[in-house]
Amino acid sequence: MPSYNNAARKYADFTDFDEDYDDSMLTRRTAVAPQYRVAGTTARPGMPRPTATMPSPLAGGMPRRATMPNLPSPNITPRGGVNAPSPSARPAARPAANRRQVAAPANSSSTMKLVLFGGAVVCVLVLSYLVVSFAVHTWQTWQDDLTYGRPRITRLMANVGHNEANGAKTLFIAQNINGQISITEYPGGDPTKTRVIVGPQLFGKDKDLVPIKLQTKDVNGDGKDDLIATADDQVLIYINDNGNFRPINDQERANLKTPSQQQDSEATK
User: Fold this and answer.
1) Is there a cis peptide before residue 2, judged by omega within 30 degrees of 0?
2) Dihedral-angle region of residue 188 (phi above 0 means left; psi in -120 to 50 means alpha; beta otherwise)
3) Of 30, 65, 88, 108, which residue is most buried, by most CB within 10 angstroms?
4) Could you give the dihedral angle defined by the CA atoms of residues 46, 51, 57 and 63, in that order, rounded to the nearest 10 degrees?
5) Mind listing the pLDDT tens digit for each residue in 66-94?
6) Torsions phi, psi for 237 (to 5 deg)
7) CB–CB of 155/148 below 8 Å?
8) Cβ–Cβ under 8 Å, residues 167 and 157
9) The three-state (H, E, C) secondary structure of the chain, written as one string
10) Which residues of the chain have pLDDT under 50?
11) Measuring CA to CA, which residue among 131, 132, 139, 10 is closest to residue 65?
12) Strands 52-54 and 152-158: what pairing?
């Protein structure tokens, strides 16, 4: 019979065995370890040393190392001289009631959907505004092309007291040529007495497409109709003075009658 190590012989009577203990337990080899071989096998050639025969693991198995129950845990001192804390000295787990509750993250998916929906609405509104603005501008330009042509030309026939002895009215032709406004007057319809009133220069995009609207009205109360030209947001007033039209001065502009005053003066006539 082979002789086993002292630990196996000492604890052979225990029935509680642990397979993991045998793996974690470091065995100390003796100075002269016996050589074992499986029963029924022959020694390797060139090695005539006598060997002890041990039971085959297939015919009953090798006896496992016995577990030593209730052994005190070793007091391990790591490098640095600080002892590891014992299990009893470890702090107890914090009760579940005192644990800090971690707030659940906000639902970012719904927030992202809301942002995307708002962005889509803004894009649709901006696109709709651009489309409507372009459609209105195109429609207005087409209407002005039919009414005033290109370049923009406006005609007006009125009695202003200039060479109208034969009863013919005076012809006014206003033109917008590349943004330059000019008004041509034919007193009494006579082209030999033509007069040209040079207006302002309009600057900006599509200013050459701005139509000029003409009308005659007594604005200073002298009993003679004056000439009023409207181009874009500008109102041009020319005073009928001594058979000609001249631009209104600052004093006359300050003395202009308001619409209510003009209605009162017309009612008293």
Assistant:
1) no
2) left
3) 65
4) -150
5) 555 555 555 555 555 555 556 555 566 66
6) -115, 130
7) no
8) no
9) CCCCCHHHHHCCCCCCECHHHHHHCCCCCCCCCCCEEECCCCCCCCCCCCCEEECCHHHCCCCCCECCCCCCCCCCCCCCCCCCCCHHHCCCCCCCCCCCCCCCCCCHHHHHHHHHHHHHHHHHHHHHHHHHHHHHHHHHHHHHHHHHCCCEEEEEEECCCCCCCCCCCEEEEEEEECCEEEEEEEHHHCHHHCEEEEEEECCCCCHHHCCEEEEEECCCCCCCCEEEEEECCEEEEEEEECCEEEECCHHHHHCCCCHHHHHHHHHHC
10) 1-4, 8, 11-12, 14-17, 20-21, 24-26, 30-31, 52, 58
11) 10
12) unpaired
Token pair listed for 147: 């009414």
Tokens of 96: 């579940």
The two structure tokens encoding residue 18: 């642990």
Tokens at 252, concatenated: 């006359």
Neighbour order of strands in the sheet with 244-247: 212-217, 226-231, 234-241, 244-247
**Residue written as tokens 């107890």?**
92
Find out whether 190 and 169 touch, Cβ atoms under 8 Å: no
- Find the length of the chain: 269
